[in-house]
Structures are given as C-alpha cells and as structure tokens.
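Help needed: design a sequence for this.
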C-alpha cells in the first residue's frame, strides 16, 4: 500500500510566506527558506511552494528563491505560480524543483499539459485546481481563485488527467483557511473518477480533518499551511495519529 503524504504549503508573496482565509486577508507566516528547512527536518513528505501573486502580476516565479529552498531540503519540492511554458518548467527543474504546479495557464491553454507531460514526464506535472461550490455546482476559478470560470471541477479534472497530468492538487475555496475540514465529498468523487493521485487542500484545522481526508475523501496526500506555519499541529504528532487510525504514513 502506498503511504499517504503530508505536505506543508508555502504561499509566497513579496518574498514572504503568507496565509489567508478564503484566499483573502493575508498575514505573514515567516521566511520561506527557513520554513522549508524546518519542515524537511520535522518529517514533511513533500513541500509545495506557490508564488500566489505571480499570475495576477503577470510575472514569473522567483527563481533565486526556488534555488535557495531546494538547497535546504532533501524531500520532493513542487513549485507553482506564473508558469506558462516549457521554458519556464525547464528553468525551475534546473534550479532544483522536483515538480511544477500549473493552474491558470492550463485553463487558458490546456495543450500546455500535454506539452509538459511529453517533454518532462507526467511524474513532475501537477495541475492545481481551485474550485468553489456555488449552488451545488463546483466551478473552477483561475488567477489565485479571483476569476470564476464555467468549467466544472470534475469534467476539468478528467480532462487534466487525459492530457497527461501526474497529480491533481484540489483546493476547495469554500473550505480554504476555515479550519473546518476538507471538502471530503468532492475529494471522494475525484478519487473515484480518476486514476492519478489527488492532493487535498483547503480546510485543515485538526488532526481528525486529515484522518477524514484520507478515510472519507480517499485522498493520496493532504496539504495545509496555517496549522503548520503557526505551530497548531506538529507533523510528527499528526503522523502518529494517522498511524493510530490505520493510515499508512512514513514516520
């Protein structure tokens, strides 16, 4: 059985790690390089580093920060934000990233997924999907969750898989930052519909929420930010709790 993964997420704005609620009201959470190093030492399985304002500001992910973070960690490391071409991905992988995460650029030009997968292999292509449940329908949003689209979450996820994505990072905008739990029904449907790993994001507040994401949502990995950044949950303690609930993790 594959072990379930715990992934701290570092949202970066102006060179600092930030965290908000429902994608707004951001507050400072520390230096990303220092945080990345601490997480690697504390038992995180992977890290995700998202330059959250890159797409909105029309610029590329900060390469030198990627390099610095990569120098400090010995665990797989995904980078996203403002990635829109094969050249962008080539640079990030050469600067130490293990995987890349694309979101808005994939919605605007879905063929990008095919191009990246065929060039670099699907194992390092993560497609992030930010979706919000509106009147019972899960609608995909782009540009850091600021622009709604007509895309249905489940239809888009299926297309993403067919185009060659290796993983999907699904963030429920309804749950993000609320600390009331992950969107387990949507997660379970994604896990049922698809054959690639699903990373749960948005809503972690307690250890039980992670247990639920794996048992009810059938997620392959669970990502969180503020509960880790502000010391509310220690990764090692969380993994012991998961193990006690018969969920396979790397201790």
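Sure. Designed sequence:
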């Amino acid at each position: 059985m594959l072990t379930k993964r715990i992934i701290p997420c570092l949202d970066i704005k102006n060179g600092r790690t930030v965290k908000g609620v429902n994608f707004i009201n951001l507050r400072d959470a520390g230096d990303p390089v220092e945080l990345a190093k601490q997480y690697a030492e504390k038992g995180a399985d992977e890290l995700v580093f998202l330059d959250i304002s890159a797409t909105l500001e029309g610029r590329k992910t900060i390469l030198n920060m990627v390099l610095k973070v990569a120098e400090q960690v010995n665990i797989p490391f995904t980078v996203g934000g403002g990635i829109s071409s094969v050249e962008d991905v080539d640079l990030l992988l050469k600067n130490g990233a293990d995987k890349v995460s694309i979101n808005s650029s994939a919605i605007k030009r879905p063929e990008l997924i095919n191009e990246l997968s065929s060039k670099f292999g699907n194992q390092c292509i993560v497609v992030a999907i930010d979706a919000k449940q509106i009147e019972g329908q899960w609608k995909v949003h782009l540009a850091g969750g600021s622009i709604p689209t007509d895309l249905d979450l489940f239809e888009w996820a299926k297309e993403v898989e067919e185009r060659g994505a290796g993983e999907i990072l699904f963030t429920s905008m309804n749950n993000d930052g609320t600390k009331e739990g992950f969107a387990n029904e949507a997660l379970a449907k994604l896990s049922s519909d698809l054959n690639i790993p699903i990373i749960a994001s948005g809503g972690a507040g307690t250890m039980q929420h992670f247990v639920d994401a794996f048992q009810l949502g059938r997620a392959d990995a669970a990502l969180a930010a503020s509960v880790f950044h502000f010391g509310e949950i220690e990764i090692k303690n969380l993994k012991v709790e998961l193990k006690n609930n018969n969920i396979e993790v790397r201790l």
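The first strand starts at residue 5 and ends at 13.
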